Amino acid sequence: MVGRSGAELIAEAAAAPVDGWGFDWLDGRATEERPPWGYARLSAARMAAARSALDIDTGGGEVLAEVPQPPPLLVATEAWPPNVAVARRTLERLDGRVVQVDPDAGLPFRDAAFDLVTSRHPVHTPWAEIARVLRPGGHYLSQQIGAGTMRELSEAVLGPLPPPATRHTAQAVAAARAAGLDVVRLDRAVLRVEFHDVGAVVWFLRKVVWTVPDFDVERYRPQLERLHARIRADGVFVAHSRRFLIEADKPAG
Questions:
Q1: Is 235 left (phi over 0), alpha (psi -120 to 50) or beta?
Q2: Average pLDDT across the chain, whole number
Q3: Which of the listed CATH numbers 3.40.50.1360, 3.40.50.150, 3.20.20.70, 3.40.50.1000 matches domain 6-249?
Q4: Band (89; pLDDT cuts 50, 70, 90)
Q5: Residue 70 has pLDDT above 70, yes or no
Q6: Which domain of life is it from (predicted)?
C-alpha cells in the first residue's frame, strides 16, 4: 500500500463488506499464524464418524463447508442475520440446515439430539445447553478465543487495559465440568498476527467487534492515523491472538 494515505486506506476499509466469517479481504494485507492442532482436520474427522452434528456460531458456514464427509444430519446455528443468509448459501451443497437463534436463549433442539457438537470461536459457550443436546457418549469439539487475544491492537486504540477477566481456559474447564461433561483435551497457542496497512486494521476491527467493542472510524480516527504512521515507520504492526482447543465428552451412563 505504498504511496496511499492513511485517510484513503481507512476509507477503503470502512466501505468494504464484512458479511460472513471469511477473511479473504485481508489477503496480502495481514497474516496470522495457525494453531498447531489443525481444527479443520479434527472437525472433519469427528464429522465423518458422526450420525448427527450441530455447529454453533457457524458464522457464514465457511469452516463447516470444508468438511468432506458430513453426517446424515447436519445443523448449524447463527445469531447475526447477515451471516444466516450467507451460511444458508454456503452450506446448501452439504444439505446443512442453518437455524437463526437468539443468543440469549437456549438451543432450539430436543434433548440428546446430536452425537457431535462443534464450535469455532463461539461468542459464548452455552455449556449446559451443549450437555443437554448431546447424546450420552457424545462429543464436543471447539477452538476458542483465549484471554487477552489481540491485546496489543486493543490497547493501540483504547489505551492501557486491565487484565482480562474472561476467556481463561480454567473458566472453560470449570464450566464444562459443571455441566456434567468430561474434558478430555485442552491445548493452548499464542499466534503472531501482522498488519501491513491501517486499512487491514480498520477492516479487522469492523469484523472482529470484540477487539474494540465500540469501534467507530470517526471516533478513533486519531488513533488510526497514529497506527498508520507506526506501520509506515516499522513496516508492520504486530499483535498476538490467543487460542485454545477444548474437547469434552458426555458420559455414556
A1: left
A2: 95
A3: 3.40.50.150
A4: very high
A5: yes
A6: Bacteria
